[in-house]
Amino acid sequence: MKDSIVILTGGGPAPGINTVVGTIAKTFLSKGYRVIGLHGGYSAIFSKEPRYTDMDFFLADSIFNRGGSYLMMSRYKPTQEDFEKNFNETFFKENNIKLLVTVGGDDTASTANRIAKFLKSKNYPIQNIHVPKTIDNDLPLPNNQPTFGYNSAKSEGTRVATTVYEDARTSGTWYLISAMGRSAGHLALGIAASCHYPMVVIPEMFNKTDVSIEKIVKLAISSIVKRQLMGVTYGGVMISEGVFHILSDEDLKNSGVTFSFDAHGHPELGKVSKAQVFNTVLENKMKELGIKVKTRPVEIGYDVRCQTPVAFDLTYCSQLAYGVWKLFHAGETGCMVYVDGRGIATPLYLTDLQDPETGKIPPRLVDITSEEVQNVFKYETHYIKPEDYEAAKKYLANPEEYDFYKILNWEYPQD
User: Fold this and answer.
1) Same domain, 263 and 383
2) Active-site residue identified among 3, 61, 82, 136
3) What is the β-pairing status of strands 34-38 and 4-9?
4) pTM score, whole prediction
5) Is there a domain that residue 413 lies in?
């Protein structure tokens, strides 16, 4: 019987998954291995009749440059009871599997390690190698190397946001846009900077003050009023989804937006449009101030996860796949594949990234103090400054409260 490898994809989609899977398949097939693609993520391994596909060159060649994931994905996370009662050990033995390749986030990687240890305890050791992915770009890879999928998602997000901005200019409208990114603002900032949006709000901006809906709304109004003073009646405010997740439950409940609540009394954020929430609060505040500006909400998220990978990710993901073969051939296991800027693949272990106390991988945040990021705020965005206070009194009784740097408690930059 041929030696086999099995590939599964976990979590949510990111552009480049098919590139990784297809290129791994091509590489291992050329080395004489059988390549099995599992559908349904880890749920397949804990099923008596897992759904899988035997991959050949023609299948691999037809998917490697496509968006989405040919292998159906799942967020399934097995419990200890699943390991004790439902683990399909027979699947590994009958198919002579030597390597488990997983594509996903840190949870997917952790589960792969658990499976490898479990099989070793059953005297059937296999290697496991993980390929990390996320469009959020928040995995702390060395040397600030991006996570695969981020550049493609940013590219498509930029296309959408550019079209929205053109509509804003054409119709004299302000758009409030929410971009994906649960804990970090890389995607929102990357899209906003690419499109020269007059205001962007990401979690990392609140490094000197507490975040609140009131402050976010004030930042938006600061940009709207500044542009009115410039004679510009349109624009866009880009807000990272991550801001939403660090707001207090009390702030959300007092926002005037109707939420459903979970069993613990927390607002169920996954069921609402973040753009709609902020747009509603912004409209109410502007009505209170007597500012007559038309605003509309737009959500950027699910529409960028399955798009066709851009050239950067096609090349990067191919190199990651080659790295899987390199690490497997070298006998590495229990690691992630990391490819640096020179294309050199090396193993990266979870312990290299985990917090030694919590065991969790801390997210890579936007370096808000870097020159690259500060240049966006200094030269691209529009907001009220001290020299605007007098003119801004036409719209605001206390313009100083809408000063960008005072809202964030930042020091004024030295030009």
Assistant:
1) yes
2) 136
3) parallel
4) 0.91
5) no
